[in-house]
Backbone:
């Protein structure tokens, strides 16, 4: 189970890059989790004695306003996760006074909750995906999502538009479009894409075939039930198909 997207900070780039580059992976489900954070410390710690606060950088960014207001002199020590930040309280060499952690952490570590609800935006949500080794694709449910990674064939004007037209002309809505550098040279990007619908839906299958004809490298990450999905309306664009009209007017990455 990995975090892949946050409603405030956007995509979790490390997770997106891993899905794009590690072979044999398949997304089989997704979960939307409200963002809730508490500030914890070892028992007996007083707020006025806190100088170093540990937490994952994304979580810290969402709690920064509260921390600046309540502990203006603090400094941040990044952690690989918020659970790890709580565990690091007991590592004397790190010198951590308090940690940003998920609610309920006190059931697993001997820590005391100093403050609750410290995130700036109470409506923030993190999207997690359940990742497995490659398995057969399940049957459509009527409220599904398909994820894939696509590379543009070349860096030229209109190439990104041509990619997007593979979906638009078939009435397939995209819920995520994130660019990530491929890393071999400047100007080369891959795109992480979430599309409404299932690969066994005719319009989605047709769009993916168009993408495969267009792109030199496509990674299919899976079709799976969407936890929150808007009604999947089939409203194909009235424009001509990409094969009939060259894509222009949109700079390729």
Residues:
């Amino acid at each position: 189970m990995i975090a892949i997207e946050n409603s405030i900070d956007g995509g979790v780039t490390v997770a997106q890059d891993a899905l794009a580059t590690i072979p044999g992976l398949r997304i089989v489900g997704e979960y939307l989790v409200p963002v809730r954070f508490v500030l914890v410390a070892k028992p007996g710690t007083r707020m006025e004695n806190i100088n170093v606060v540990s937490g994952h950088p994304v979580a810290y960014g969402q709690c920064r306003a509260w921390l600046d207001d309540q502990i203006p002199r603090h400094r941040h020590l990044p952690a690989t996760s918020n659970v790890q930040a709580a565990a690091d309280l007991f590592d004397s060499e790190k010198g951590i006074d308090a940690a940003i952690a998920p609610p309920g952490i006190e059931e697993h570590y001997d820590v005391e909750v100093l403050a609750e609800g410290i995130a700036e935006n109470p409506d923030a949500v993190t999207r997690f995906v359940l990742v497995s080794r490659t398995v057969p694709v399940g049957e459509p449910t009527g409220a599904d999502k398909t994820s894939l990674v696509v590379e543009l064939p070349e860096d030229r004007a209109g190439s990104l538009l041509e990619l997007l037209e593979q979906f638009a002309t078939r009435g397939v809505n995209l819920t995520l479009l994130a660019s990530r550098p491929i890393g071999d040279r400047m100007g080369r990007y891959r795109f992480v894409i979430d599309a409404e619908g299932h690969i066994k839906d005719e319009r989605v299958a047709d769009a993916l075939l168009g993408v495969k004809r267009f792109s030199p490298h496509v990674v299919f990450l899976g079709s799976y039930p969407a936890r929150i999905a808007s009604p999947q309306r089939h409203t194909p664009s009235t424009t001509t198909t990409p094969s009939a009209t060259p894509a222009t007017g949109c700079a390729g990455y």
The helical segments are 13-21, 57-70, 82-87, 159-168, 202-214. The two ends are 31 Å apart (CA to CA). The chain has two domains: 2-33+127-225, 36-116. Residues 229-253 have pLDDT under 50 and may be disordered.
